[in-house]
Amino acid sequence: MKYMNSWKRRWSRLKRNKVLSLLGLATRAGKIKSGSFLTEQAVKAGKAYLVLIAGDASENTKKKLSNMCSFYEVPARFYADQDTLGHAIGKEFRVSVTVTDAGFADEIEKQLKTEEERNCI
After folding, report:
1. How confident is the model at residue 119, as a pLDDT?
2. DSSP character string of 63-92
């Protein structure tokens, strides 16, 4: 029962959050790479359009991924935590999620900006 309650809370958060919903949709479309190793491969191959890095990732991982993304000119954003990112794409914990489709990446960035504006006001 305890597990079910935490799942319900995460599901309700996922339904309300458009960024996480878009990540789930992109996953079902096969346009997501997850984990730091696959993120690194996608960025270096030029297939990445957006990288989301978990806010609770280690400082070394954050620095490594953000430096790599800036070198290859791929937008990188810090978002949520490892559990939330993983749950949004149907996995467990994920430090990074890479979007490999330009349309999904643009829409996710737009939603991130509206979330930032809503939180700032």
Report:
1. 80
2. HHHHHHHHHTT--EEE-S-HHHHHHHTTSS
